[in-house]
Amino acid sequence: MHETSIVNSIMKTLEQEFEEKKLNTLSAIYVKVGKLSNIEPRLLHNAFTANNYCGTKYHHVKFHVESTEIKIQCLHCDHITQITDYKFMCEKCEKPSKNLIQGEEMLIHKVEFDD
Amino acid sequence: MNIEKSTKAARGTVQCENTNINLLKANDYVAEIIRNEMKKSNTLLINITSSAGSGKTTLMQKTAEKLKDKITLAVMVGDLETERDAERIRESGIQALQIVTGGICHLEAQMIHQVLPEYKLDDIDLLFIENVGNLVCPASFDLGEDYRVTLMASTEGDDKPKKYPRMFLTSDMMLISKCDLLPYLPFSVDAVTKDALEVNHELEVMQISALKDEGIDEWCDWLLEKIKQKQNN
């Protein structure tokens, strides 16, 4: 359900960003979802496919979902730590941090069009 | 249903647009509008989240009883179906409106914005949004709130902060609820606090029991302090 509304949001966003004529040539969408975004890539993919069963003009569009790791950057020593056990702490100086630099995103980061 | 087959193969050169469009752009835009309206009317907006059945509505009733003679407060409450929660809260003598999401597992900023005209914001000091009971999706949707408060009932088990990290990471306060049951449950306040602070070291933690009126005065003092801060700004 959550994933279906995300797919709708993707299509709505693209319709706002690009002209209809250009969207008719849309061939691929690349999205990035962070491990903290509560979006499951496989379900998002399923939701996109299910959406197109209804015969939308996007049924030939390829849909790629990339999952990104959670990373924080320490505000004291600048060190970047990849978070694996949800312990939000710098691995170098062991100070806690909420300074997320990756992992929360839900982004359309690339779209391709046929020439 | 007629499903068209694609005869359109990719051909020629492929144009790429490298873009970075946030999928929740529409939600975040509306959340900002709500934030501005709250600023204009000096209304403190609190988003209450938790699992289903952890005591959000009971806390709303108790908070209303304690504060309704000191300040003007109101609630909007989201649920998949029924008007039950809003009715319960109205019995405490404050304004409460139900947002029926019709199956959607979270509240979005647009839903909040649609019901705002029902409230006389200029007269309201504190507005609660009682979110849909769910620790997953509501974490992703900014509703324009000043603070996000997550209830964590002692009956849920003390392992939740690491299971639902995004919710605890985006919260400002964790209220450990149903604390009157602690003597009967294998629930460690220390363990849940440790896990929650590992996820979010800025999280404030309080223990309450709305039924037995424990910790509610401290909670109300916290709210009054935040209202004062907002109105002085």
Give the SSE map.
The complex is a heterodimer of chains A (115) and B (233).
Chain A: H1 2-17, H2 20-23, E1 26-34, H3 41-53, E2 62-68, E3 70-73, E4 80-83, E5 100-102, E6 106-114
Parallel strand pairs in A: 1-2
Antiparallel strand pairs in A: 1-6, 3-4, 3-5
Chain B: E1 14-22, H1 25-41, E2 44-49, H2 56-67, E3 73-79, H3 84-90, E4 95-100, H4 109-115, E5 126-130, E6 147-153, H5 160-163, H6 165-169, E7 173-177, H7 189-199, E8 204-207, H8 216-232
Parallel strand pairs in B: 2-5, 2-6, 3-4, 3-5, 6-7, 7-8
Helix pairs in contact in B: 1-4, 2-3, 2-8
Write a short abstract of this structure.
The complex is a heterodimer of chains A (about 120) and B (about 230). Chain A has about 120 residues and is of the alpha+beta class.
β-strand percent of chain B reads 15-25%
- Principal-axis shape of chain A: elongated
Q: Residue share in helices of chain A?
A: 25-40%
Total strands of chain A: the figure is 6
> What's the shape of chain B?
globular
Radius of gyration of chain B: 20 Å
Uncertain segments of chain B: 1-13
Largest interface: A-B, 40 and 42 residues
End-to-end distance of chain A: 34 Å
Helix segment count of chain A? 3
| Main pleated-sheet profile of chain B | 7 strands, parallel
**Which percent band covers the strand fraction of chain A?**
25-35%
Helix content of chain B: 25-40%
CATH class of chain B: Alpha Beta
CATH architecture of chain A: 2-Layer Sandwich
Total separate domains of chain A: 1
Structural notes for this entry:
The complex is a heterodimer of chains A (115) and B (233). With 115 residues, chain A is α+β, with helices and mostly antiparallel strands. Chain A is built from three helices and six strands. In chain A, the strands form two sheets. Chain A has a three-stranded mixed sheet with strand order 2-1-6, covered by helices on one side. A three-stranded antiparallel sheet of chain A has the order 4-3-5, with no helix packed on it. In chain A, strand 1 (26-34), helix 3 and strand 2 (62-68) form a beta-alpha-beta unit. In chain A, helix 1 packs across helix 3 (41-53). Chain A is elongated. Chain B is α/β, with parallel strands linked by helices and 233 residues long. The longest helix of chain B has 17 residues, at 25-41. In chain B, strand 7 (173-177), helix 7 and strand 8 (204-207) form a beta-alpha-beta unit. Chain B has a single domain (26-232), classed as 3-Layer(aba) Sandwich (Rossmann fold), CATH 3.40.50. Helix content of chain B is 34%, strand content 21%. Chains A and B meet through helix 1 and strand 6 of A and strand 1, helix 6 and helix 7 of B.
